[in-house]
Specification:
five-stranded mixed sheet, seven-stranded mixed sheet, 350 residues, 8 helices, alpha+beta, 14 strands, 2 domains, single chain
Length: 350
């Protein structure tokens, strides 16, 4: 009877996990179940083969179950990370550590709650890893690149930075104060010219994009030079469901993971992972003079790589009277060339 109950509980837990992952990443539940089933079968087969080769380990059934569970969740993280930021997969492959804070699940919560708290918590960890990894990638493209080959890490040079030039509006960044010049079509065209001059290529079909947050996107869309069909046609604007999705040959990517820049003579991108412990970039390292940016990127001239994924699980902790979970992924990004060709930033001007 106890075995049947465990099997029934495992089935219900699996469906709940699939439902949570499906809702987070907006994919059908059956698709998630197929991925989970395939991962579980492969991992279980590997474990069974290992035990068959060494029957002396047959008594370690609980260890087997624990190992399968951890490897299963690591595989789920690998499968679904970056789903919310698909543009991450467009760069070339070429590592920083991004991790989540430990989550404590009291033993009582696993008994009292009507849903699978473990599955819910691990789903939250996946989403947070996704968020922080994407933030880190854009910072590495726009900011200080990791040291390599003895070369001192360098910020984006002045030649790759343009400043906004429109009328002024109140800053939209948390912690910042004052007004900033708005982002307009002239700023985009000036930055695009800079990108062309740096790369020596007029076009790179399907390989270029401009990243911006919602506020800068709305400022650009409101430019009077884009307020009619004919004007938008002249600028190569592609509309989809009322939104601009392409301009001047560059895909428009609206995202919530844009790095901030300082306001020195040559603005410098600020590291979002300074505040990673809180899970909220720039929650403590903000300055009143921080500036938002838009970022033009040629995907042939930037790199990204994802390394090990680790899930940490401490079950039945006597100190915490429950279980502790956290996760870590190694993900990195860089510009390809020392002169930062392929990346141009448009930084707000006070």
């Amino acid at each position: 009877m106890k075995t049947l109950f465990k099997l029934f509980f495992s089935l219900i837990s699996t469906v709940l996990v699939a439902s949570i992952v499906a809702s987070v990443y907006e994919v059908p539940v059956p698709d998630v179940l197929q991925v989970m089933a395939a991962i579980s079968l492969v991992l279980f087969a590997i474990r069974i083969v290992a035990l068959a080769k060494n029957p002396a380990d047959a008594g370690r059934v609980s260890g087997l179950t624990y190992g399968v569970a951890v490897e299963f969740w690591e595989s789920v993280i690998a499968e679904f990370i970056m789903k919310d930021y698909p543009w991450l997969r467009r760069a070339k492959d070429r590592l920083d550590e991004v991790s989540t804070n430990p989550t404590h699940i009291r033993d009582a919560e696993k008994i009292e709650l009507t849903y699978d708290k473990v599955a819910s918590v691990l789903s939250d960890h996946i989403k947070n890893l996704d968020f922080l990894s994407a933030y880190n990638v854009l910072f590495r493209w726009a900011g200080k690149n990791p040291a390599a080959g003895g070369v001192t890490p360098a910020d984006l040079p002045a030649a790759n930075i343009r400043r906004t030039s429109g009328t002024t509006a109140a800053t939209h960044l948390s912690g910042a104060t004052g007004n900033r010049k708005i982002f307009n079509l002239a700023d985009f065209n000036a930055a695009k010219t800079t990108l062309i001059n740096l790369t020596k290529r007029e076009q790179n079909a399907g390989k270029r994009a401009i990243f911006m947050d919602e506020t800068l996107y709305n400022q650009l869309k409101a430019d009077t030079n884009l307020d009619t069909f004919d004007k938008r046609e002249m600028q190569g604007v592609v509309m989809q469901n009322g939104d601009m999705v392409r301009i001047g040959g560059l895909d428009i990517i609206r995202t919530d993971v844009m790095p901030r820049f300082s306001n020195v003579t040559t603005p410098v991108a600020k590291d979002p992972l300074t505040d990673a412990d809180s899970g909220i970039p720039y929650s403590a390292s903000f300055a009143t003079t921080d500036n938002a940016c838009a970022l033009l990127v040629d995907f042939d001239l930037v790199h990204i790589a994802m390394g090990d994924i680790k899930l940490f699980e401490t079950l039945g902790s006597a100190d915490y009277q429950g279980d502790i979970y956290s996760a870590l992924v190694r993900v990195g990004a860089s510009r390809e060339r020392a002169d930062a060709t392929g990346v141009v930033a448009i930084v707000q001007e006070p």
